[in-house]
Design brief:
- This protein is α+β, with helices and mostly antiparallel strands and 154 residues long.
- The chain folds into two domains: 1-41; 50-153, Lipocalin.
- It is built from one helix and eight strands.
- It has one helix at 5-40; strands spanning 50-59, 67-74, 77-82, 92-98, 103-108, 124-131, 134-142, 145-153.
- It has an eight-stranded antiparallel beta barrel with strand order 1-2-3-4-5-6-7-8.
Amino acid sequence: MILDNKQSTYKIKRMKTSTSAVYTTLLTLLLMCHACTKSTQQKAAAIANGTYKGTFQRTGPNPGPLAQVTIAFNNGNWSGNSQTLDYPALCEGTYQFNSTANTASFYNYCAWYANIDFTLILSQQFQLTINGNTLKMEKDQGGGIKDVYLLTKQ
């Protein structure tokens, strides 16, 4: 089949137009997917500086008592106390907030007696849920056991 100049020009223009349409469609879909991903990812806010009061409890098959606690957060530093001796084991240290994972890693600077339950020391990584002035911190201890802090900013 022999194409004259008008027919070949038309086919080339049609090919360019359809290629542009494909690229435009792909780019639009890519941007829409990126926008959807961004809007559904919610990052937790950092722990606001201040004093938080609330409760601590080790939950699970044999839950522990409900202890009244106070923890102060100040620019990556924390200090706290509990009305129940060493339950949980609070003192002072630092923490690092990870907004992507909604977690905070706690480091405790205090020396502890050998007779306490070292798993009750505020240390390691906790999952955070922040809702206004309410802060929930959870750490999975395994075996259906969790350490749960329910705190309210004062």
